[in-house]
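#random but structural
TW: two for the price of one
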Amino acid sequence: MLPIRRALISVYDKAGLDKLASALKAAGIIAVSTGGTARALKEFGVSVEDVSSITGFPEVLDGRVKTLHPNIFAGILARGDRADDLKVLAEHGINRFELIVVNLYPFGSVISKDDCTADDAIELIDIGGPSLVRAAAKNHAFTAVVTGPDQYDEAIAAMIRGGTTLAERQLFAASAFERTAEYDAVIARWMAGHAGLVAGGAKPTSKESQSEEPPLPARFALGLERRMSLRYGENPHQSAAMYAPADTHFGLAGLKQLSGKELSYNNLLDLDAAVRIADLIQDPGAAVIKHTNPCGAASAATIDEALGAAMAADSISAFGSIVAVNRLFDEAAAECLLKPGMFIEVIAAPAFSRGAVTVLTTRPAWKTSVRLVEVPPGDPWGPTAGLELRSVAGGMLAQRPDETPDDPTAWEVVTSKAPARNLTQPLDFAFTMVRRLTSNAIAVCQGTSLVGAGVGQTSRVDAVRIALEKAGDRAEGGVLASDAFFPFPDSIELIKQAGIAAIIQPGGSKRDPEVIAAANEANLPMIFTSRRHFRH
């Protein structure tokens, strides 16, 4: 156990500083500080030695240079069991520090504000703070480092007992390096965007525009913090948690649960799928998800109309589903879910009206179970360098998210017969839906409502068959979308028999001429988009 005689304190976050000050006074510890921290400590009755009296140099460059001085860092880094280190301190009149209390400028929270400029962000890049923390963590055999108010109770307990143990200093050091790594990761990601290394925006993209994106980074830092502990993973024998970069509060990283049971691992996977498909819909829209695939989705003039159509698409599968909408979830929308025999696991929206919350938490039999979740709008990909990540054994796969709208002006009618004008919007909607289905994927839509889906099949003709069976009579006069090309013309006969009015698919198969010929023979209009939407 090493006693604490001198402590250097420099904190941006002043929370809990009053408790720390009381402990410093009670233990007779000499406090060294500067700027706002020194003023706060003095207000709490602590006698403070100013850093400039140790360095013999005033703060300069508007506070950019305060603690970066050998008299400070030698006092932190000196090894207590090395006679030569102690001799150097004695020769230069340098006193050791046994405790460093530092928290860093809130770079992540500042850059998340809409009015944050590049100059604002750059000024909040802490230099001295991380240097102090890293120096103390490196020399943890002789110096304790505290990096947040959440550690003050442990530090105060050590002061009361007369010192810190090696085990405590090791834990403090591990936490310190985690926090500086996370801090640098946030800055690195911001700088990549500032330097134009990260793609941004959600402009409609065609095949040609894909080459305009910046290359994927050779490396990027990803500091994750645990946001949510989960009861278990996909199965009860698997432990699980949700992590997110410290500087992101969009998407599921920023969700706010208003009511209901705790979210599970599978809930979050389904919730991600639900929110992402709802966000792809431009008009008021709703998505109903089971096992990460939509069993219903629709757009309409109002959210309640869209939700009603989405729920009706496959009412059997909708039992125990995850529901997401892309507008305020109001009381009329809540009423759509109160049919007898219905049960909903999670409802997600950008916001809920007070009336909707009241209805859903007081009326249905499942009122105490349903989770109401607000998911804030905004770009969730910034903290991951604009990349969507997926883990594989021993590594990570990264790709640009398939989130940007398609460009219908780049589409081509390849059959002799063009789709009727009133099918333009349904075709656009169907091709939007199919991009969020698991490949091989087929979507059948009636108007702007998904009525049948074939997902995750090993052959495309099986996906067609399943989607048409799900749609039933509703396929008549509807449209069909495929996430990738038809490798053979065998699906066309099934599509014709179901009464589909038009097909939309990427094209690109060496057998495209055969497929087009089959569509012409069936008098079926077909569009090629030249853009595939696989989702594995």
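TW: number two ↓
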Amino acid sequence: MKLRGTYLVCSMEGHRLSAVWGNIQKDHVHIRGWHIADRPASIEEGNVEALGEWVGESLRGAGCRVKSCLIAVPRASVVLKRLTFPAMRQAAEGDLAGMVGLQMARQLTMPLQGAAIDFVRLAVPGEDSGAPTEVLAAALPGEQVAWSKSLSKAAKLSLKSVALRGEGSAALFAQLSYTQDGPILGVSVTPQGVELGVVSQGRVVFSRAVDVTPPTGVEEWKTFTERIALEAKRTRVGFRGAGENPDFGCVAVLGDDSLAASMGKALGSELELPWQTVRFPNAVDLPSDMDSSTRASVAPLIGLMLGAAIDRPTYDFANPRKVPDALASIRQAALAAVLGLILFGGGGWLWGDQDYRALDGQVATALQSAKSYQEKYVRQLRADARLQHIQKLRSDRVDWVGHLSYLTSSMPSADLARLDSIDGSTKAPVAFLHVSNDARSTEAKSLFDKDAQWVKNLRVEISVSGVAARDVADRLRAALVESAVYQVSTRGADVANRFDYQLVSAAPSPATTAPQAQGEGN
């Protein structure tokens, strides 16, 4: 990755935005500013447009006016595979890209549609050495690539590269790795987590990420270092299990404060290895007001800028290495011939094609507009259906006073009958049904059915029981049946001196079905 000029390097992981910007020159980096901020709770993590707009506004509010950006992705988002191929000359880089892509397609479990696959050589053997070619290949899922592009676009930034954040730490560990007898275990502690990378001869040969947030208080630091020590042991086992024989030469912790020293001491004691803290090299100019905790937080990002300054080979998921096109020259000649035909013999066709494209664009615009109006229409239908549903539920309320008044006026006089109990209940289910010619279907319909409407099936049930002579009870029953206000049924067997009737009506009030009946007495 070769970059020159003023660049912004940012990382967005979880709720934390970390960014640095400055000038990248040959063998030198000058940091001009930095910014660390937490994503507002009102912005959802999956809303890339809103997140990108917030990132742009937050950076501009911090004084960043840089447009060219490099997005650093965490180790957890990238799949790393160490691959070995037969001896291959460095000139055959294009063939190697095709071989790496084929091997990754065989070994990866994630879909390769849209995924970016890149690689770096772990060592470049001599032209005639016959040594195998080893590479460390990396794959970034397609949705992560699309997310990075969408984020930079929404933030109004020009995306130049998508890099692995751990490579920035490796660039800072590289100088130390050349002075050791074996590979070093590089530890980088950031607010988003901890990255453990095995660096040998300036290259990352093994890498792991630990999703654990560093503590904010000193009293919790011991528990945190114990967890990282356990992960460091697992990294050693995984590294040796990958076929590597040499053990670590030392443990290196990125940082220059007391916490970094405490971490290095604890890891060195647990792994029984010497340890060191790694500071920024002289090739990096840092602002005087950047404190040690901030330097540790953005160190991997500054390391990526340093790697670009020294032309360090690394991953670039925005511009991955590709197989060279052997037929490019033939295709270019054919395209030139076609262009000549278009310019000299196909002017009319070209103009017609332009008109066609203009009309096609208008059709696309019209279809998009129709889709927008269709969505608004559906939302309106839903809102109207909800309103009608509520109105139907609130309509036709039962007039219990009217029913009681009607039954009271229908009862015989007190000397002929005595009412012992009267109970009432109602059932009023509401359904959206097809209604045509007063024939109602029991099948629910779509909102687009013009003959469908909300239907409320009201059922009023009243139970009356009391004491009366048989002939009086029969006259009461006959009067209720004749009034057509209720459907009358007798509950249980007829008894000589009692009556017990079940009255059912579909009307909320007796006044809607029949005139007020006159009782036999009062």
